[in-house]
């Protein structure tokens, strides 16, 4: 299965493959390794918060220049339009079939770093 992921505040969608036995903590590691040279450099995977848009709040993956604005329009609190995933949840229990290809499946919230 392949999941379209988006880091909150960014507009580049990226695809992460997951296996049938994977749990959310495995997905976090895959996401971090996919973006290790970019915005997730020096970020521990376990600190990422993963959110799945609720079924009534499908977010189109295109056009990419409208993603940040669209998510911002939905509100500041992800919990209003998405469900936070627990590290031990099975990916298969969240997505029992391949989700629709042209939508965002996972929103990644990166912890704020103190400088």
From TrEMBL:
Record-linked Pfam families: Crinkler
Domain Crinkler effector protein N-terminal: 1-109
UniProt entry keywords in alphabetical sequence: Secreted
Subcellular location(s) per record: Host cell; Secreted
Secretion signal, residue range per the UniProt entry: none
Primary location recorded for the protein, binned into one broad class: host cell
UniProt entry tagged with the keyword Secreted: yes
InterPro entries membership: Crinkler_N (IPR045379)
Keyword tRNA processing: no
Gene Ontology cellular component terms for the protein in this record: extracellular region; host cell
Protein name: Crinkler effector protein N-terminal domain-containing protein
Organism: Amanita muscaria (strain Koide BX008)
